[in-house]
Design goal:
single chain, 2 domains, 336 residues, Rossmann fold, alpha/beta, 6-stranded parallel β-sheet
C-alpha cells in the first residue's frame, strides 16, 4: 500500500473486515483512521509516546492575573524534575517518557534532565507592551519545532504536549480572543483558582492588553499576547506535522497553542489529536473553532499535559486496532 493509495475509505474497509461487528468500537475506530492518515501508514504505531512539557513565565502576572505568584513556575519545574508532580505520576502510569523544557522561566535553572531552550526570564507584560519581539517569536517557534524533531529522532511515534507557566491562561485567553475570534469574556476563566475579586482583576488586565493592540494577524497576535512556552508548543506542532507525527493536545493552554499553529499553517491541523474538554471557560468554544472532537471529558483543568497523558492509552489502543486484530476472513478460514 503506497502513501498515495492510503485513503480513509481503504482504512475503514480494513476496520469493517475485522472479526467484530462493523463500527462496534465507535470513536476508537475514528481515532485509528486519524492515526493512519497522519502517519501515512496502514498500520500506525503509538508504542512510544513522548510528553514535551514546556515551562515559561509571563509578564502579565505583574497585573495580578493569577491567584499564584510567578515563583510557582520555578517550583513546579523543580517538582517535575524530581519526578513528583501529577504529570510524572500519570506519565509513569501510562508508560510515557517526559522531557521538561525551559522555554522562559523567570529564574536561572540548571539540572541534567532539563532542556535549556530559554528565550528569557519570562515575557514582557502584555498589558503594557508586546509580550515578545518579532525575533523572539520567530525563534521560539523554531525552537519548539526543533524539540519535536529531536523527540521523533529519539524514536517517538506520537508526541504529547504539556505546559507550566503561572499566568498562561490569561495569555491563552487573549490568543483565543483574537484568533478564534471570540468575545473576551467568553475566553476567560478562573485559571489556577481565582475567586470573584481575582477574576475581576484578571479581566481588567486582559481588557487593557486587548485595548493596547488591535493585532489580528496570527504571528502578530502571538507576538503581542503569547508566551514563550505557548509559542514553542505551536512550533512543536509544526515540527511534528513536517514529520507526519501525531500530537496529543492537552487542555486550554495547549489548545490555544494549537490554534496559533493552525492559524499560521492550516495544514498542521491534521496532526492534532485533542485529548479532552477541560473545565476552563472557553475551551469548549476553542475546540469547536478547531472542529475538534475531544476524546475525554473529565472536568480536568490542571494542565501539565495530564489530560494528554490520560488519553495516551486510547491512542495506543487505536493504533493496535489496525495492527493486531484479525480479519473475519482469517478467523473463519482458520488462518490464525
Amino acid at each position: 500500500m503506497t502513501e498515495s493509495a492510503l485513503t480513509e475509505a481503504y482504512i475503514r474497509a480494513r476496520l469493517d473486515a475485522q472479526a467484530r461487528p462493523p463500527g462496534s468500537l465507535g470513536r476508537i475506530e475514528d481515532l485509528a483512521v486519524e492515526l493512519a492518515l497522519i502517519q501515512k501508514r496502514a498500520t500506525p504505531c503509538a508504542d512510544r509516546i513522548a510528553l514535551l512539557l514546556f515551562a515559561g513565565d509571563h509578564g502579565l502576572t505583574q497585573e495580578g492575573v493569577s491567584a499564584y505568584p510567578a515563583e510557582v513556575t520555578q517550583a513546579m519545574v523543580a517538582t517535575f524534575l524530581a519526578g513528583r508532580a501529577t504529570a510524572n505520576a500519570f506519565a509513569r502510569a501510562v508508560g510515557v517518557q517526559t522531557t521538561v523544557i525551559d522555554a522562559g522561566v523567570a529564574a536561572d535553572l540548571s539540572h541534567p534532565d532539563l532542556v535549556d531552550a530559554k528565550m528569557g526570564r519570562g515575557t514582557r507584560n502584555a498589558a503594557r507592551e508586546p509580550a515578545m519581539t518579532v525575533d523572539e517569536t520567530t525563534l521560539a517557534l523554531a525552537r519548539g519545532a526543533a524539540q519535536a524533531t529531536a523527540a521523533v529522532a529519539r524514536g517517538a511515534d506520537v508526541l504529547a504536549l504539556g505546559e507550566m507557566g503561572i499566568g498562561n491562561t490569561a495569555s491563552a485567553a487573549l490568543l483565543m480572543h483574537r484568533l478564534a475570534p471570540a468575545a473576551l469574556d467568553d475566553c476567560m476563566g478562573v485559571g489556577a483558582g481565582h475567586d470573584a475579586a481575582g477574576l475581576a482583576k484578571k479581566r481588567a488586565a486582559l481588557v487593557r492588553a486587548a485595548e493596547r493592540s488591535d493585532a489580528v494577524e496570527p504571528f502578530e497576535v502571538l507576538s503581542q499576547f503569547g508566551g514563550y512556552e505557548i509559542a514553542m508548543m505551536a512550533g512543536a506542532i509544526h515540527g511534528a506535522a513536517d514529520r507526519n507525527t501525531p500530537v496529543i493536545v492537552d487542555g486550554f493552554i495547549c489548545t490555544a497553542a494549537a490554534l496559533v499553529a493552525v492559524r499560521l499553517r492550516p495544514e498542521t491541523r491534521r496532526v492534532c489529536l485533542f485529548a479532552h474538554r477541560s473545565a476552563e471557560a472557553g475551551h469548549a468554544r476553542m475546540l469547536q473553532v478547531l472542529d475538534a472532537r475531544p476524546l475525554l471529558d473529565l472536568n480536568l483543568r490542571l494542565g501539565e499535559g495530564t489530560g494528554a497523558l490520560v488519553a495516551a492509552p486510547l491512542v495506543r489502543a487505536a493504533a493496535a486496532l489496525l495492527s493486531d486484530v484479525a480479519s473475519l476472513d482469517d478467523v473463519m478460514g482458520g488462518r490464525l
